[in-house]
Amino acid sequence: DSGVTQTPKHLITATGQRVTLRCSPRSGDLSVYWYQQSLDQGLQFLIHYYNGEERAKGNILERFSAQQFPDLHSELNLSSLELGDSALYFCASAVGTSGPTQYFGPGTRLLVL
Amino acid sequence: KNEVEQSPQNLTAQEGEFITINCSYSVGISALHWLQQHPGGGIVSLFMLSSGKKKHGRLIATINIQEKHSSLHITASHPRDSAVYICAVADPNSGYALNFGKGTSLLVTP
Asked: How confident is the model at residue A39 (pLDDT cuts 50, 70, 90)?
């Protein structure tokens, strides 16, 4: 158990819908990273938050957004969903921003029908 | 972007064999990560390396910064080692977000 929690574990929805994925980092970790794992693209970085502020963006679509709240949990919002958004979404937490070990949550498996 | 290449893509070994998975990257880095992804999907961080060698149980990871190459070795492999092993490098321009290789799928048979 990494200490990082993600909800829900599974999500099935339809094209055009909007969903919210939630991540709670390990106690004391200020950084949250979001990653997407799909069959064709593999694992790729979406966005990074540190202590409530957005720090870096990766291959995140404009239809996707995220935020980190004062209690340090983070949410990833996916809207206007398409079939190709079906993937495993992981969050990972870390103490800081200078490259320490990242601890991964169990992931949310999203299926868009 | 730092290109991360892993080899082999797939690997089948018999229980007890010594296993090596290789990783190369294109741009100098501060740290390299080895991750393990179980069939159920969960990802576990095995090592973070910036130089030399690290050992944890039957797992050994080495890195050669000059050659931009790292290896993950598994000694006395066991069926429970069956998983996908992923090499990743931290990108300082993205808050040290990880840039991943495509992974090596390992199957250890009894």
From this structure: confident
Q: Give the sign of the dihedral formed by CA B38, CA A49, CA A39, CA A64.
A: positive
Listing from the earlier edge strand, what are the strands of the sheet with B52-56?
B4-7, B19-25, B69-74, B59-64, B52-56
Closest of B25, B3, B10 to residue B104, by C-alpha: B10
pLDDT in tens, A42-66: 999 999 999 999 999 998 999 999 9
* 8 Å CB contact of A45 and B86: no
Burial A41-79 (b: 16+ CB within 10 A, else e): eebbbbbbbbeeeebbebebeeebebebeeebebbbebe
**Which of A104, A108, A110 best tests the B interface by mutation, with the highest count of B CBs <10 A?**
A104
Separation of alpha carbons B64 and B56, rounded Å? 19
Chain B residues inside the 8 Å CB shell of A45: 91, 94, 97-99
Contacts of B41 in chain A (CB under 8 A): 88, 106-107, 109
